[in-house]
Write a structure and sequence with these properties.
The chain has about 230 residues and is α+β, with helices and mostly antiparallel strands. The protein is about 45% helix and about 10% strand. It folds into two domains: about 10-85, Alpha-Beta Plaits (2-Layer Sandwich), CATH 3.30.70; about 95-185. The two termini are about 35 Å apart.
């Protein structure tokens, strides 16, 4: 039975269908599998990854070996068919998505509206902001589908243009307005002021250290259950 949680994965050929399948792992592992070439399959009661259609057996093996090496390189425990086992540990580099997520870290540390506005500028800059690049990418992908030749490709191209022209435009407009409001506000965040470690002039107590509010009081740990109590009553 495959282990399907946390840091454990199985990458094997299904003994009945012969399909190359990957089971288990968390969100980070799923991203690694996708970058290695696997396709996510999400069903009502299970999720897993499979190899793309149309690959030869040797191509599938190379895909599986690459995935095993990538996953083990960042600490995942991967059980696999003997043919897929490898000592290779490919280097991992920051992804574009991780670079964008870094903006969230900066927002968590922002202490005033000016800092937040600067961070939103990276999203909303009209010429070279992240949303502008995203819109251009969708439009270019639409052009790619225009020339593929299948009957459904023009529909896909039109849908991508609709996403770029309508949804991304709405998100950009809303965030740009939010950024402008923050830039005009010039206000510190009341819950994130920087600690100056200075005692106010009016403070009479010599033992006072600074003007920061005290940290929230931790709740006491719950008492352990009585000895011998193994089931809760309904």
């Amino acid at each position: 039975m495959p282990r399907t949680t946390g840091r454990f994965l199985d990458i094997r050929r299904d003994p009945h269908s012969g399909e190359l399948l990957a089971h288990g792992g968390d969100a980070e592992a799923h991203s690694i599998l996708q970058r290695a070439g696997f396709i996510a399959v999400v069903r009502l009661h299970e999720s897993y990854h499979r190899a793309p259609a149309g690959l030869t057996e040797d191509e599938e093996s190379r895909l599986a070996i690459d995935a095993v090496g990538r996953l083990r390189a960042v600490g995942y425990h991967v059980d696999c068919d003997e043919r897929f086992d490898t000592e290779a540990r490919p280097a991992r580099y920051p992804t574009l998505g991780a670079s964008v997520s870094h903006l969230a870290e900066r927002l968590r540390e922002a202490t005033d509206t000016a800092e937040a506005a600067d961070i939103l500028t990276e999203l909303t800059a009209r010429h070279d902001g992240i949303l502008a690049g995203f819109k251009e990418t969708l439009s270019t992908l639409a052009e790619f589908f225009d020339g593929l030749g299948d009957a459904s490709d023009p529909y896909t191209a039109g849908r991508l243009r609709y996403l770029a022209d309508e949804y991304v435009r709405i998100i950009h407009s809303d965030l740009a307005h939010t950024r402008e409001r923050l830039a005009d506000r010039h206000a510190p965040h009341p819950g994130r002021r920087a600690c100056t470690e200075q005692v106010p002039d009016h403070e009479p107590e010599r033992s006072a250290v600074c003007a920061c509010p005290p940290p929230p009081r931790a709740l006491p740990a719950p008492a352990p259950p009585p000895v011998g109590a193994t089931h809760l009553r309904r």
